[in-house]
Amino acid sequence: MNRENKLTQGNIAQVLISLAIPIMGTSFIHMAYSMIDMIWIGRLGSNAVAAVGTAGFFPWLAFALIVIPKIGAEVGVAQSIGRENRDEARTYIKHAIQLVVLLGIIYSLILIIFRNSLIDFFGIEDKEVIEMAISYLVIISFGIIFYFLNPVFTGILNGYGNSRTPFKLNAIGLFTNIVLDPILIFGIGPFPAMGVKGAAIATIFAQFVVSCSFIYYIIKSEDDIFKNLYLLTKPDREHMKKIIKLGLPTGLQSGLFTFFAMIITKVVASWGPVPIAVQNIGAQIESISWMTAEGFATAISAFVGQNYGAKKWDRIKEGYFMGLKIVSVVGILATFLLFFFGGSIFKVFISEPETISMGVVYLKILSISQIFMTIEIVSAGAFNGLGKTVPPSVVGIIFNGLRIPSAILLSRYTFLGLNGIWLSISVSSIFKGSVLTIWFLYTLYKRPSTEVINKSHGL
After folding, report:
1. Beta-carbon neighbour count of residue 76 at 10 Å?
2. 0.85 exceeded by the pTM?
3. Is 103 helix (H, G, I), strand (E, B) or coil?
4. pLDDT value for 454
5. Element (H, E) at 295
6. CB neighbour list of residue 287: distance below 8 Å, 6 or more residues apart
7. Would 385 disulfide with which of 19, 198, 278, 305, CB 3.0-4.6 Å?
8. N-term to C-term CA, the chain
9. pLDDT tens profile 97-111
């Protein structure tokens, strides 16, 4: 194993930051895909933004399935490497890839078959928005297998301690998307203007390029961890069960989070397409802090996983507290930017005055919860590294679920109106960050005995 992939040795700050920076870069790349799409689509107007944002819930919902093999591979590989059991790590890689391919095929068929009913769920009355949303969803569905594969390949390498390669390969996809978006959306040279369809094609083709790059890297790698994977052989029930056990709580949380968000959007839709556009653009802007924290959480997960496998509890503690400090700074900066510069940021995406005015209020309300959101995400990553994926899921499901009744109550039965929905989202993030961080601190100071770690084998 390359020493630079070893997270159980060396200066903790140096190891953690060198691992985290490429992962955060990869997270920004993922954020940039949809953000760049939204910038170009925003030039087509609020209806186009509403259509892509509505259809975009289903690739987002897909993450509930993707995260099962992703977390299983990330944690399983990290803890196996920490125990210096490379054969077991190889087994996790094989089974994670097998599982994600199966899930991707099933999900693609569901989206294609039920496309009309899925879009109708939101109760959108504008026929133009509905037609564009269905077109976008169908195109994404045909290539969604690549959307499934790439996070799992990324998770495998991150768990192994190699975060630079996923960053480089995902960057290739981003560059492809940046080039294709304006060409296919507006029509340049021999290409006709395809609007939202062009955005979908650009995204899927970029994801295809990334998948091919990962596969090429694995085939050409001289590292024995990627040799003899035998992906076409029958899966081992025991390891498949372990992957599902690790990833299912997070997958359930992710799926319910998206479902709750869809319900919230259904409530927002009663105010028309402009608030839907505000919500979608606002989510892209807020993702700057969210994806930064998510990237650092992935680094914390890999770091904690390897050190848990190696039974180095003191390194886990120090790494976690360092992570909290870093993302707290991110949260504070995000609060400042969203509160004071919301209008300027919103203008990058859209030029309609009504949408910008509404967006400024949205960002100010969301700004108060940024630091709590970032510490929640990092605490969830630390729990995942320990193989304890249930606590983050419990906290997330409870407080995300409470957004629905609070959004309805605050928007329809108080003077707040639409702003009551934004407030329900922000307040729930404050509770999630507070509760989960306290829960992990309790876990830290409870400190499991060496015997417990040995018995669990990190699972």
Report:
1. 31
2. no
3. helix
4. 43
5. helix 273-309
6. 31, 34, 35
7. 305
8. 22
9. 999 999 999 999 999
